[in-house]
Design brief:
Layout (H helix, E strand, L loop, with lengths): L2 E5 L3 H13 L2 E6 L12 E4 L5 H8 L4 E4 L6 H9 L8 H8 L1 H10 L7 E4 L2 H11 L4 E4 L9 E2 L4 H13 L4 E4 L4 E11 L5 E3 L3 E6 L2 E7 L6 H18 L3 E10 L4 E7 L9 H4 L4 H9 L13 E8 L9 H11 L4 E4 L9 E9 L2 H17 L11
Parallel strand pairs: 1-2, 1-4, 2-3
Antiparallel strand pairs: 5-8, 6-7, 6-8, 9-10, 9-11, 9-13, 11-12, 12-15, 13-14, 15-17, 16-17
Length: about 400
Amino acid sequence: MPTVTMIGGGQLARMTHQAAIALGGRLRVLAENPEDPAAQVSPEVVLGSHTDLAALRKAAVGSHALTFDHEHVPTEHLETLVAEGVNVLPPPGALIFAQDKLAMRTELSRVGVPVPVFAPVETPADAVRFGDEHGWPFVLKTVRGGYDGRGVWMPVRAEEAEALVTAQLANGTRLLAEAKVSLRRELSAMVARSPFGQAATWPVVETVQRDGQCAVVIAPAPDLAEESAAEAESLALRLARELGVVGVMAVELFETDDGALLVNELAMRPHNSGHWGMDGARTGQFEQHLRAVLDYPLGDTEPLAPVTVMANILGAPQAPSMSMDERLHHLFARMPRAKVHLYGKSERPDRKIGHVNVLGDDVAGVREEAERAAHWMSHAVWTDGWDHHE
């Protein structure tokens, strides 16, 4: 049975390992630390950095495919691996559009895919000019890296923009500017594609962001017009095909106040907005990603309930004195239909340490239950004041 190498030892690799077990394969991980979530559970761990070509080569030896827990591997290293015969999926020519936000926006604009108005920022004057032309505040982003609100700023005046840009350029950081979009909400359309060219989508979901970080995912997105859902899924299929994606890809979207869809980000790997499918879809994203990179026929993505809500378990400002094990005990006693996925991470403020999935029929009720469960797991406090000792 095949071995797949995944670069990165985070929770995405950990949950991909769970899927690999069911398929009879092996997941080898390149992890920086033996305590990384995937390194705790995978039988094949190579310790090393994703920026070290020697470590990448070691992890790739004998694997049928090499894929990713994150997009931060230097492109030149991946091109070297491909030249040496490693089956890198998605290939570097596709992955660049998930690694480099400026390259992504430039390419999508070229092929007629709607994105927010943007421009490269090479000097403080570029940022001020953009703000004057497209309105203040605007969005200033790092071209590479940055996630969960990191590497994103919204300067409201010229002096602030100049100071931000000066500081970032001094650190060698490349930047771009985007017009701030008046949006109704954020959506995500996930797609999987195999080397054979088979592709499959899941229902479009709504992602609820708090402080720049995904907190809740509602599947399918409530009150989304059928035409908009079809447009988003078709767009995801088109991008996967035209960019040459192999594996799972999340197309993060803005739904504007007038109902238009704009592409915000691409992620060519399993993604937080797809976690609901572990319990709520016939084939979840982790199994589907392995099927895709191994060129197996793809699985059915049909939802298993009218509504699934995923709520992230985020580290509390101060970790509770109650152990995670005891919190889990009380949660299961009160909410037996909640499905909990913990990542084996230590607790610190706002860190993603797990998620909860709840399936049901009523959006409001399911969402309330999922968020209450996640808050309990983070804080050991019930949001409705319930006393588990009574």
